[in-house]
Amino acid sequence: MKFKKLFAFAAALLVIGSTNAYAENSDRPKVIVSGAYAEPWGFAEVKIDIKNNPGISAFSINLSYDEEILEFADARCGNGLTNGTFFCNGSRSGNSVKAVWSNASDMYLNDDIAVIRFKVKNAEAETSSALKIEDSEFGNSHLEPVEIETHDGEIKIAREILPGDADENGIIDINDIVTLNLYLLDNHIYPLPSYTAEANCDMDKNGIVEITDSAIMINKLCGIE
After folding, report:
1. 175 has which bridge partners?
2. Which string of b and e fits 57-66 if b means at least 16 CB within 10 Å?
3. How much is the pTM?
């Protein structure tokens, strides 16, 4: 009976989440720096995503970070770039990373266009470090500039991350799913208590606590990986 109620609760959340996502959707092209969670002296993988892609054949993105807290580890082109040439200046830049890509034809995929990995080298748990797009350029195969709105991100530093432990009691059980689902219903009334709790709820490790994390957590509890 508990599991029947749990799945009904999850189904209701799915409807609410889908409705909100539809209501907030915009046709405006966006490039978004995803959030990420990491432990002190651990690694964080940050994705730069494109939404409502109008078609691009080149970009240049300069992402700044706090070099006192973060250290560049590596970078690669994202899943949204199936062709072309990708370059990143990496650790030679000091407190920023420049990612550049070009291709002979336009790409229209809505996916990550760059993935950058940082090491958290000097930070206390339950703090965060900003990632800012300082400047960017986008163009298409007609040699025309493409206007794309940009959004910054951050890396949140957690304590020891235990995926699924939403209430941070060291045990993964139904209470964790209830805690996560209440947060998804209204994160102002039912906030998660810490970055560590958020990191534990980010089951797909995309830097966002969302409805898909609830489904993954339910599968984990049921023994379905």
Report:
1. none
2. bbbebbbbbe
3. 0.85
